[in-house]
Amino acid sequence: MTPLVIKVGGALLDAYEQGQALFSAIKKLKAERPVVLVHGGGNLTNDWLARLGFESQKIDGLRVTPPDQLPFVVGALAGTANKLLVSMAHQQGINAVGLSLADGKMVNACLLNAQLGAVGQASAGDPKVLHALLGADVVPVVSSIGLTEQGELCNINADDGAVALAQTLGAELVLLSDVPGVLDGDGQLLVQLTATEISALIEQRVIHGGMSVKVKAALAAANSIGQRVYIAGWQQPQLLTTLADEASVGTCIVPDFVMENQP
Ligand SMILES: Nc1ncnc2c1ncn2[C@@H]1O[C@H](COP(=O)(O)OP(=O)(O)O)[C@@H](O)[C@H]1O
Ligand SMILES: CC(=O)N[C@@H](CCC(=O)OP(=O)(O)O)C(=O)O
């Protein structure tokens, strides 16, 4: 059965009840197919950096990560955020193992540009460690801290990291956030989006900030994996079990070739 990569945004860490409901849904789902969880922790990282007196800047939804902030970003994401989620999983009776994208070279990274500091661009890596864990009935819980070929730690946007991990495994991908999906200018859910519609909505700034990183990542994944990718809310975890029925789940990002083949 094709594995499913589920990415959860870091806001889940502040939502205990929803977190428990999500892991309860994942427990049911993993009886049917292998599941890997990739997580963010943007809010927690903001909080840590502010408490330490750092200014945190974002460019096009990506956190500028100077060398003096990197140890705290790694600590927040690969440390506290990762272990809190592993603990939530264990509370629901899931045998979870906490890792980062760097472990076992499951995702490769290179630095994006000097302006962003230690921010990595992710690409597919080696699936061996994940296969071993999935074979042992474990749910890997993976933070978005990566490692370059030269062994430098880097901060990867968790949506981009999830895309690379889905590519590593040839898996389907769902991006779960604190909103039910991509919303239009009136706050209504958009059930399906193509590349052209995404460009227009970003241009009009209807899609902005973290959501703009997410839709671009989802489109890249849809095109590379050749499958629809869903952006949905972790408030409705029961939707995860309806993916196989192609039921309406949040916003469906359609790969380009599907549109090209439509009459
Ligand atoms: N068109 C849009 N539809 C929905 N959310 C949007 C849109 N444009 C911007 N956003 C913002 O993007 C946020 C989700 O992105 P982000 O905070 O990065 O999520 P996550 O932490 O789950 O990855 C939403 O909470 C919302 O504030
Ligand atoms: C480079 C970059 O932007 N990294 C992100 C990684 C965490 C993340 O993506 O968290 P959410 O999924 O909760 O937004 C950051 O530092 O916030």
Automatic annotation (TrEMBL):
Its EC number is 2.7.2.8. It is an enzyme of class 2 (transferase). Pathway: Amino-acid biosynthesis; L-arginine biosynthesis; N(2)-acetyl-L-ornithine from L-glutamate: step 2/4. It is found in: Cytoplasm. InterPro entries: AceGlu_kinase-like_sf, AcgluKinase_fam, ArgB, Asp/Glu/Uridylate_kinase. Belongs to the acetylglutamate kinase family. ArgB subfamily. This is Acetylglutamate kinase. It comes from Saliniradius amylolyticus. The gene is argB.
